[in-house]
Amino acid sequence: MIYSFNGFVPVVHESAFVHPQATVTGNVLIGRNVYIGPGAAIRGDWGQIIIEDNCNVQENCTVHMFPGTTTRLREMAHIGHGAIIHGATVGRNVLVGMNAVIMDRVEIGDECVIGALSFIKADEIIPPRSLVVGNPHKIIRQVTDEMLAWKTQGTQIYMQLPADCHATLQPCEPLREIPADRPVQTAGYQTWAERKAD
Question: Which N-terminal residues, if any, form the signal peptide (predicted)?
Fold first, then answer.
């Protein structure tokens, strides 16, 4: 659901995919190959939201701000399920874990990994390539090349998802039985723990 607000109409690139059960309101700019999942609320009612190319904002995320400010997700930012970004700038190729909360005027440097359930209070500056966990947050070490490659691979899967949704997502009635010829999905991606175990 996409709404104009106070004269501002969201701008969504044609290659992006905004799920019909997401809500995008007002002064919002969404770039190429962006995925916005169901339940996400992207509220550009009091300020501007810029979501650059190749980002994903997953299910039940909230992106908002205090009046007169801008929230920015730089290219390839990966915002995990249920996260809240409020008035912050999230750097290029950053992973924000599930249910993390990033508060006002936070600046997250490029290529950081923010752990699930982390809380970053207002006005914090997180240096590039930081691995951040906890509530309150702590920087525990630098993101390794291996971890960054894993994160980037995961984001690339989401970069393909808008095109796949445009091509194949459609409402349907459920089946009542499992068909004998139901295909098996391939994994194609490992969790960090699985990758480290190999």
Answer: none
- CA pair distance 4, 8, nearest whole angstrom: 5
Asked whether residue 98 is domain-assigned, the answer is yes
Sign, CA dihedral 97-92-125-25, equals: negative
| 24 assigned to some structural domain | yes
Q: Are 118 and 137 in contact (CB under 8 A)?
A: yes
How many CA atoms does the CB half-sphere of 72 hold within 13 Å?
14
Helix (H, G, I), strand (E, B) or coil at 157: helix
CB 107 within 8 A of CB 120: no
CATH number at residue 126: 2.160.10.10
CA atoms in the 13 A half-sphere facing the CB of 46? 9
pTM attached to this predicted model: 0.94
| pLDDT tens readout for residues 40-83 | 999 999 999 999 999 999 999 999 999 999 999 999 999 999 99
**CA distances in angstroms from 30 to 9, 173, 177, 195, listed in the order given:** 12, 31, 40, 32
Helix, strand or coil, per DSSP, at residue 86: strand
Per the DSSP assignment, residues forming a β-bridge with 49 are: 28, 71
List, in order, residues 6 or more apart from 169 with CB less than 8 Å away.
none
